[in-house]
UniProtKB/TrEMBL annotation:
<feature type="domain" description="Ion transport">
    <location>
        <begin position="351"/>
        <end position="574"/>
    </location>
</feature>
<dbReference type="Pfam" id="PF00520">
    <property type="entry name" value="Ion_trans"/>
</dbReference>
<keyword id="KW-0677">Repeat</keyword>
<dbReference type="GO" id="GO:0005262">
    <property type="term" value="F:calcium channel activity"/>
</dbReference>
<keyword id="KW-1133">Transmembrane helix</keyword>
<feature type="transmembrane region" description="Helical">
    <location>
        <begin position="540"/>
        <end position="563"/>
    </location>
</feature>
<feature type="transmembrane region" description="Helical">
    <location>
        <begin position="480"/>
        <end position="502"/>
    </location>
</feature>
<dbReference type="InterPro" id="IPR005821">
    <property type="entry name" value="Ion_trans_dom"/>
</dbReference>
<protein>
    <submittedName>
        <fullName>Transient receptor potential cation channel subfamily V member 4</fullName>
    </submittedName>
</protein>
<dbReference type="InterPro" id="IPR024862">
    <property type="entry name" value="TRPV"/>
</dbReference>
<keyword id="KW-0472">Membrane</keyword>
<feature type="transmembrane region" description="Helical">
    <location>
        <begin position="440"/>
        <end position="459"/>
    </location>
</feature>
<feature type="transmembrane region" description="Helical">
    <location>
        <begin position="377"/>
        <end position="398"/>
    </location>
</feature>
<keyword id="KW-0675">Receptor</keyword>
<dbReference type="GO" id="GO:0005886">
    <property type="term" value="C:plasma membrane"/>
</dbReference>
<dbReference type="GO" id="GO:0098703">
    <property type="term" value="P:calcium ion import across plasma membrane"/>
</dbReference>
<keyword id="KW-0812">Transmembrane</keyword>
Length: 720
């Protein structure tokens, strides 16, 4: 049988508008029947596609859905104009909705439909995910939920493994589609995508199918990263016994039905899965379970030098991922376990270094010859100098180790400039001191300044200093830099004009040169004082220029700066906590990659159970935007609202409220029962009759709910 070329299918729509009188007659007839013009056109299009499919002998390559998702996008019309694909997606989504309601889809035919012409036998959802058609993907998942877990067929030559639809979306970097499919999948299936694979001889030594590190660093995949993190939070409801049509005794009926009538509105607690954030680039975990399954052992295949996913999230610009509860709770766990202790230890050691440095330089400056040591005070000064030099060598070794680990990313942090300037300037003091050069004190003063500025790298040792430092840095970065740029643009021409105007008279004795004019201009800004005390020697032009400069700088620019700083402070305060968490992540990951401590393996934690109350205490921290006298119940309500934000509700038609039914909450993702989906439907009823009424309604109207109930019936009795 001759296969119809794909370009003919791509031009089919144009043929309908230009050559088919029958097409327009049918459209007009349907419109007269009460349909809108667009709906009538789409129904006629679908009917023509079905007719063509029947005439071909029901060949798979002529199936209407396959034509829409495979042949139309591959046609020359859309290959040459990829910007038209969003319009095609909208059209295909409308046509598929009509096709799914037609007789061709009787028995839900497309749940098991595959493209037999393709070697991998893709499903419709595979094609939609590959194209990045989000709305079509949603429609397919809603109508045919089993497609979510259908695999393509593997190939030997060329080698291609069987893949899920979400994998094609990840490969194609379709962020929205990948994020949606990830949220629709069971959490264990998502974990497998980013977990190491077993080898023939070893266990979990091969890298994962997909590197979460690579996805995090891909700026196109921000929503997918958040979706993966969402699947790392799994709510826990109490065990629910299986319901029966008939019960052995009244006691059994009352017991089982009573449990179902008291399903809590919110879960008891949540399982936060941290392991994926501590994995290396291949998905390998720091520790693995032994054969017994109860004891953990260090993973010899784990590459501790690789940057963790937590580190990559901190380096990314994905604010939603940084604010995600899994990330924030892992930060708090690590910080309480070892982060705060080791950073406090480093800060304390550095304070001792500053004390030694300050005493050795300040006391040495009081001596005529700092190279001679007499008496106890001089000996103590010598001890401080030796201790300072030893600690300088130690800190240089630490920085060299960081360069070896961080490589190019080491240079991206501005604090490293202060690190090296402070350390190298101390070493420069030694030859200058023993040569008797007076320049030693200039170098020493700069060394003292830069080394004291280095202490800001330990600002996150406490929350108060961390938030304050971040707010101050934001103000300096945004406001002072802009102010200085405008100030220089005004300062230089005014000072130059003033200097030239003063040459018109020989009576001026206030300025010896252009440098004095520049210094006076800067002092006028910093000290808010006039250029000179006596203006009698100034001519009229010099007086005018000076007054214009003073008015512009002191009255206009300074007041604008104050107003800008007030606005920036309010904005910076809101993001300071986020940047504070980023600093803590970088400090934690730096400690974890120190070779002798092995903190990443030693303090590895797969996950933990967290209650709503703990979430409220840890995540809803006090800020000026919240009431300090907020009750526990108010915090719990706030955390429930937060949970709804980071676990989006799956898009389905709403279940109408039937008489006698009390709908508790919307949820279909109950991990302990082993099926997937997003929060959608959990309800309790006051009688079995009403319960059956709702079930019948759902069977007739919501196909996905029928599928969910089937999965529920299979898994509800399992002890998970």
């Amino acid at each position: 049988m001759l296969k119809v070329p794909s370009d003919n299918h791509g031009d089919l729509l144009d043929e309908e508008f230009t050559t088919s009188r029958e097409f327009w007659s049918k459209v007009h007839e349907k419109q007269n029947g009460g349909l809108s013009w667009g709906r009538a056109m789409n129904e006629v299009r679908v009917e023509r596609l079905i007719h063509r499919y029947n005439e071909s002998g029901e060949l798979d390559n002529e199936d209407p859905a396959l034509v829409m998702l495979k042949l139309w996008p591959a046609s020359k019309r859309f290959k040459d104009n990829p910007e038209k694909l969003p319009g095609l997606e909208k059209l295909v989504n409308q046509l598929l909705g009509i096709l799914f309601e037609s007789e061709l889809n009787s028995g839900n035919r497309y749940e098991s439909f595959r493209d037999r012409e393709d070697k991998t036998e893709k499903t419709l959802l595979h094609y939609a995910a590959e194209l990045g058609f989000l709305h079509v993907t949603k429609a397919l998942v809603k109508r045919c939920p089993p497609l979510l877990v259908e695999l393509t067929r593997s190939q030997l030559r060329p080698h291609k493994r069987a893949m899920l639809p979400v994998e094609l979306a990840l490969i194609g970097e379709s962020d929205e589609v990948a994020a949606y499919l990830t949220r629709m999948m069971w959490h264990e299936s998502v974990k497998k995508l980013f977990s190491p694979r077993p080898d023939d001889e070893t266990t979990n030594s091969k890298p994962s199918l997909f590197s979460l590190n690579s996805i995090i660093t891909n700026i196109k995949m921000k929503k997918t990263v958040v979706a993966v993190l969402d699947k790392m939070v799994n709510p826990h409801w109490p065990y629910l016994p299986k319901r029966k049509d008939t019960y052995v005794s009244q006691e059994e009926k009352e017991g089982i039905e009573g449990v179902w009538k008291t399903i809590p509105e919110d879960p008891l607690n949540y399982w936060f899965h941290y392991a994926i954030l501590d994995s290396d680039e291949g998905g390998r975990l720091p520790k693995v379970l032994l054969s017994g399954g109860h004891k953990e052992s260090d993973n010899k295949y784990f590459k501790w030098r690789d940057k963790s996913c937590l580190h990559m999230i901190a380096k990314s610009n994905n604010k939603e991922a940084l604010q995600h509860p899994v990330v924030r709770m892992l930060i708090k766990t690590k910080w309480k376990s070892y982060g705060h202790f080791f950073l406090s230890l480093q800060a304390g050691l550095y304070v001792i270094f500053l004390l030694f440095l300050s005493y050795s330089l300040l006391y040495g400056s009081t001596k005529p010859d700092p190279t001679h040591y007499r008496g106890a005070a001089d000996l103590w000064c010598g001890f401080c100098e030796i201790a300072t030099l030893l600690m300088v060598v130690f800190y240089i070794c630490v920085e060299m180790n960081q360069i070896r680990i961080e490589r190019y990313s080491y240079l991206s942090e501005w604090i490293t400039l202060f690190d090296w300037l402070g350390l190298l300037l101390i070493l420069c003091v030694i030859p200058l001191r023993y040569t008797g050069s007076k320049a030693q004190w200039t170098v020493a003063s700069l060394a003292l300044l830069f080394n004291f500025l280095r202490i800001f790298k330990f600002s996150c040792v406490t929350r108060t200093t961390g938030l304050y430092t971040k707010t101050l840095a934001k103000i300096i970065q945004q406001d002072l830099t802009r102010f200085m740029a405008v100030f220089v643009a005004i300062f230089l021409p005014f000072c130059g004009s003033l200097f030239l105007s003063l040459h018109s008279t020989n009576q001026n004795q206030e300025f010896s040169g252009f440098g004095d004019v520049l210094l006076s201009g800067v002092r006028a800004l910093s000290e808010q004082r006039p250029f000179v005390a006596d203006y009698s020697s100034f001519n009229w032009l010099s007086m005018l220029l000076m007054l214009m400069y003073m008015g512009t700088v002191l009255v206009i620019l300074l007041n604008i700066l104050i107003a800008q700083m007030s606005t920036t402070y309010i904005q910076a305060k809101k993001v300071a906590r986020l940047e504070y968490d980023v600093d803590r992540i970088l400090q934690l990951t730096r400690m974890e990659r120190f070779p002798f401590l092995n903190l990443r393996v030693k303090y590895y934690k797969e996950g933990e159970w967290i209650s709503e109350k703990k979430l409220a205490e840890e995540l809803l921290e006090f800020s000026e935007d919240r009431n300090p006298w907020e009750s526990v119940e108010e915090k719990l309500n706030a955390i429930r609202l937060l949970r709804k934000e980071w676990r989006p509700v799956y898009e389905l038609d709403r279940v109408p409220q039937l008489e006698g039914i009390h709908v508790i909450r919307m949820v279909t993702d109950i991990p302990q029962f082993g099926f997937f989906g997003e929060p959608e439907v959990v309800y309790c009823s006051r009688s079995n009759d009403v319960h059956r009424q709702l079930e019948e309604h759902m069977r007739q109207n919501l196909r996905i709910d029928e599928f969910v109930k089937e999965e529920f019936a299979k898994n509800v009795g399992r002890d998970l």
